[in-house]
From TrEMBL:
This is MSP domain-containing protein. Pfam families: Motile_Sperm. Signal peptide: none annotated. It comes from the Eukaryota.
Amino acid sequence: MEVPLLVDPHTVEVKASGGVSTHQIHNTTQKRFAIKIKSSNIKDYILKPVYTFLEPGKQEPLVVTRKEGPAGKDKLVIEFLEAPATEKDAQAFWKGKKSMGEVIVPVICT
């Protein structure tokens, strides 16, 4: 079974005092995906991007910024859905749609 998305590194490691963790999301398929990234803790984390398109065989950066706050058990969820090349607004494309899959990225905060 083909794994559509890979995240490198697969785990976010940040300090409770704050910091930045940079990752690459790889599309391992020949399909274009709309991506939506969610956090279990929106108070302490800023994600860039939240919505994007990922072209076949390409990769996109994901920057996770941690604000100062208490350490906790958190995760990121990267949802994906096949998207036609004619779509230009990833956030609008997601309205009313459900993902076809997801990748869970653990967050280790110390």
